[in-house]
From TrEMBL:
Entry's Gene Ontology molecular function annotations: zinc ion binding
Alphabetical UniProt keywords: Metal-binding, Repeat, Zinc, Zinc-finger
Segments forming domain C2H2-type: 75-102, 106-133, 168-195, 271-298
Protein name (Swiss-Prot/TrEMBL): C2H2-type domain-containing protein
GO biological process: positive regulation of transcription by RNA polymerase II
GO terms for cellular component: nucleus
Coiled coil feature spans: none
Superkingdom field: Eukaryota
Keyword Zinc applies: yes
Presence of keyword Thylakoid: no
Length: 320
């Protein structure tokens, strides 16, 4: 969809050392390696063979070739035969089993942009701000600027001497990690099978290293309730059925939204804008729309509040 966007609408990640620009953050991270001295580049080595890589995600992926098929955790789709090695892939796949009306979208109140993830909308909202309104986190050693504090924190590592960076070292091999949880996970490969506690299924030969279904954690009950559906058999899932057609939904609000298509236009309650001809079926949509009629100073305040709320929610989601 980038080909349909104006250049000013596309977020770019700029290199602080040269004129390189990237549309994806991971591309910039890969590029930044050319500005580092060989001694500064952290490499992740495989503990079973000579494989080395500059990115941790590649070594994690590589390690799968050393595992027996029975040891690899897979995330299975409850609707079809799809299996994934990463939870994020299953989450993305599950969208194909949803009706368009069931997919939550985050809509921009200034233009027609829609996003499936709140983070993407938060990033997009920056294009509607004046440069002077955007808070930046500036590096005290070079000209690097970041829109997010976490990006500056990561960047600051390039200015540190290797001896200053805290690492968690494996006592059995040369593995080093910047986070304790990564080391804890790594230590399992040094244990004998008899030392690893497994939780066995009483119905089949399935064994797990964790008692729960998976490692998912949530700070809100509704997020956990929604997540638990992927562990249920199709027959166990409560559905809300339309009394006019074959439509079924897993959430009541999706059915409520769907029922509007069976109503006559005169029966549908609309929320009308008092300044223009805009109409909405949901009050929240009208509230968002009203921002375009606000005084610029009030609009700045409202945008800042919405941005902070989105940022807070994102931080909570990342901690889940």
């Amino acid at each position: 969809m980038l080909i349909h966007k104006d250049a000013s609408e596309i977020t770019t990640y700029d290199c602080s050392f040269c004129s390189y620009k990237a549309k994806r953050k991971r591309d910039l991270i890969g590029h930044m390696l050319i500005h580092k001295d060989a001694s500064e580049i952290t490499t992740y080595g495989c503990s079973f063979c000579s494989f080395k890589t500059k990115r941790k995600m590649y070594v994690t992926k590589h390690m799968l070739i050393h595992k027996d098929a029975s040891e690899i955790t897979t995330y299975d789709c409850s609707f079809c035969s799809y299996k994934a090695k990463r939870k994020s892939c299953l989450t993305k796949h599950m969208l194909i089993h949803k009706d368009a009306s069931e997919i939550t979208t985050y809509d921009c109140s200034f233009c027609s942009y829609k996003a499936k993830r709140k983070l993407n909308l938060t990033n997009h909202m920056l294009i509607h701000k004046d440069a002077s309104e955007i808070t930046t986190y500036d590096c005290s050693f070079c000209s690097y600027k970041a829109k997010q504090k976490i990006c500056l924190t990561r960047h600051m590592l390039i200015h540190k001497d290797a001896s200053e960076i805290t690492t968690y070292d494996c006592s059995f091999c040369s593995y080093k990690a910047k986070r304790k949880r990564y080391l804890t996970k790594h230590m399992i490969i040094h244990k004998d099978a008899s030392e690893i506690t497994t939780y066995d299924c009483s119905f089949c030969s399935y064994k797990a290293k964790r008692k729960s279904f998976c490692s998912y954690k949530a700070k809100r009950k509704r997020y956990l309730t929604k997540h638990m559906i992927i562990h249920k058999d199709a027959s166990e899932i409560t559905t809300y059925d339309c009394s006019f057609c074959s439509y079924k939904a897993k959430r009541k609000r999706c059915l409520t939204k769907h029922m509007l298509i069976h109503k006559d236009a005169s029966e549908i309650t609309t929320y009308d804008c008092s300044f223009c001809s805009y109409k909405a079926k949901r009050k929240s949509c009208l509230t968002k729309h009203m921002l375009i009629h606000k005084d610029a100073s009030k609009l700045q305040l409202m945008t800042a509040v919405l941005f902070l709320k989105a940022k807070r929610k994102l931080n909570l989601t990342n901690q889940c």
